[in-house]
Amino acid sequence: MVGALVGSGCGSSTTAVRVGDRSLDRDGLMAWVSDRTGVETGMTIPSGMVVETIDEWIVNESLADLLAEHGWTPDDKARNSARDQLLVAGIDPEDARLPTYIDWQAVRARAASGGPEVRAAYEAHVTLLSHELCTSHVLVASEADAREVLDLLGSGRPFAELARALSQDPGSAARGGALGCVPLGSFVPTFERATLGALRDGKTLVGPVPSQFGFHVIRVDEIAPVAPVAFEDLGDRTFGVALQIATLTRTVEVDGRYGTWDPMVGRMVSPEGPR
Asked: 56 and 144: one domain?
């Protein structure tokens, strides 16, 4: 995949990526890519690293935008606490990424704390999360394999047949990929986020969805609304739920030369050809 030239000197105010009212122009993005990856000005960086950088930016800025919408932005106390946490974690105080990471760490800590604005965000969007996940899946080793599964489904091959033949999850493969209906919190975050994205968009098929197990093609088998979980009962799921809401509800725009944001899965996808 062709890479991007970092700091090429071709200045531009064209927006490269936007989340709500938060944005980076092309120069700002390339400066952040350079800071994040350590690639020197004038060097070419692989597209995958650019996509990864944009993905990180979108997710963190989505969370920041969600909390700002409900009345909270980092103040000096929150930033100082976040800075201390990052330094204890080993980040160099001279690291060029530190100012941005301080803001992101402050936002993440606030989301995890379950403050009043986190409750407000949850209660404003709780219907998005008030479902059991009734799904089937095909688990394969690579993104290319998952896309092949999607192509086969598009050509009319039965989902259960493909799950039995190709899925690397032997338990569900024997049932034609069926995972049944389970409450939120039962699956890994990327699987849950993609399923919620499909439910939001009224889709029954979503993929490729990455996880630590491989790549999933997920089918929504049933729409199963349930009574919402009370905010105070979220416990250690509070941060993950806030992150799901943020990426489900923010408007994201990305310059196509850098890839695309898949709103259903909630992740960046690499561009298909040279930029």
From this structure: no
- How many domains, the chain? 2
* Band of residue 221 on the pLDDT scale cut at 50, 70, 90: very high
Q: Which structure tokens are listed for 42?
A: 């004038």
140, 168 contact by CB (below 8 A): yes
Does a cis peptide bond (omega within 30 degrees of 0) precede residue 228? Answer: no
What pTM, to 2 d.p., does this model score? 0.90
CB 113 within 8 A of CB 67: no
Same domain, residue pair 157 and 110 = no
Query: Are residues 17 and 253 in contact, defined by beta-carbon separation less than 8 angstroms?
Result: yes
Q: Is-contact 251 19, C-beta < 8 A?
A: yes
- Strand duo 4-5 + 44-45: pairing: antiparallel
What pLDDT, in 10s, does the model give residues 107-117? 999 999 999 99
Q: Is residue 232 part of a domain?
A: no
Exposed, middle or buried by CB within 10 Å (0-12, 13-18, 19+), for 81?
middle
From residue 53, alpha-carbon distances to 97, 101, 106, 129, 238 in Å are 12, 13, 19, 28, 25
